[in-house]
């Protein structure tokens, strides 16, 4: 009897000790950190602002429709004016009875108008002698554009002229130094070049550009031609003055 009770209590202890069979299995859940990262990344992407078209109020829509309708009416009127009056028209019949021939000028001697008076459609409230405000605005814009274009062309021409003058003055200085060195060589003089700093050389070049003129260059060129029959631009010395005059194009660089 005692053994039976012991076995029964052991079975009860084993029954109460193994609780895993009563607990439902856990389902795996996705990690929360990754979902948060995805949501954060989605929120960080900037969305382009959607531009909504500008809506017109009822007054602006009414004005726009009226302008479109007036433009269509004006266009239709101009199209109708291009066609001649039909012969079934009462006015045409009256003119024909009075001796009018199609295409001829009016009047007894044919000195009148051959074409009808031109029609100008006006939708503004301006006076008869004043131009249409829309046409006047377009004309002013065209005039301003033409004025700006002419101004730009003038500035470009002035800039090109200034550039040419600077280039010519630099060429005068360069040719003057070449002529001076050639004259010193022909006179058997040594050309000594002193070592100078960059800043000093730039300053002296600016001063020389201001001092040396085209008259100075022509003077030294004529001295080379008269005394030594030498032309700087030809780069050679002639045997005589006659050979120089017959073979050399001139004293200017542009002639060579």
TrEMBL record:
Residues 87-133 form the G-patch domain. Residues 192-216 have a biased composition (Acidic residues). One of its GO terms (molecular function) is nucleic acid binding. This is Putative G patch domain-containing protein 11. GO terms for cellular component: kinetochore. Residues 32-44 have a biased composition (Polar residues). PANTHER family: G PATCH DOMAIN-CONTAINING PROTEIN 11 (PTHR21032). The lineage of its organism: Eukaryota, Viridiplantae, Streptophyta, Embryophyta, Tracheophyta. InterPro entries: DUF4187, G_patch_dom, GPATCH11. Residues 1-75, 187-216 are annotated as: Disordered. It comes from Davidia involucrata (Dove tree).
């Amino acid at each position: 009897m005692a053994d039976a009770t012991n076995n029964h209590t052991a079975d009860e202890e084993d029954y109460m000790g193994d609780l895993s069979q009563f607990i439902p299995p856990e389902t795996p859940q996705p990690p929360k950190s990754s979902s948060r990262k995805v949501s954060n990344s989605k929120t960080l992407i900037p969305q382009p602002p959607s531009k909504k078209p500008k809506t017109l109020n009822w007054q602006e829509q009414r004005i726009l429709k009226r302008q479109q309708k007036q433009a269509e009416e004006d266009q239709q009127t101009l199209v109708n004016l291009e066609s001649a009056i039909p012969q079934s028209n009462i006015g045409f019949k009256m003119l024909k009875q009075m001796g009018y021939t199609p295409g001829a000028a009016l009047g007894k001697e044919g000195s009148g108008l051959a074409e009808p008076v031109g029609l100008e459609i006006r939708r503004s409230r301006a006076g008869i002698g004043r131009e249409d405000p829309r046409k006047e605005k377009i004309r002013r814009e065209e005039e301003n554009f033409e004025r700006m274009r002419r101004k730009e062309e003038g500035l470009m021409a002035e800039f090109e002229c200034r550039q040419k003058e600077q280039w010519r003055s630099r060429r005068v200085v360069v040719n003057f130094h070449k002529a001076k060195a050639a004259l010193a060589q022909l006179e058997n003089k040594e050309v000594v070049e002193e070592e100078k700093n960059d800043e000093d050389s730039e300053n002296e070049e600016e001063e020389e550009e201001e001092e040396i003129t085209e008259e100075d260059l022509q003077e030294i060129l004529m001295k080379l031609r008269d005394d030594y029959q030498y032309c700087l631009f030809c780069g050679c010395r002639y045997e005589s003055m006659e050979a120089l005059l017959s073979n050399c194009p001139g004293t200017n660089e542009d002639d060579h």
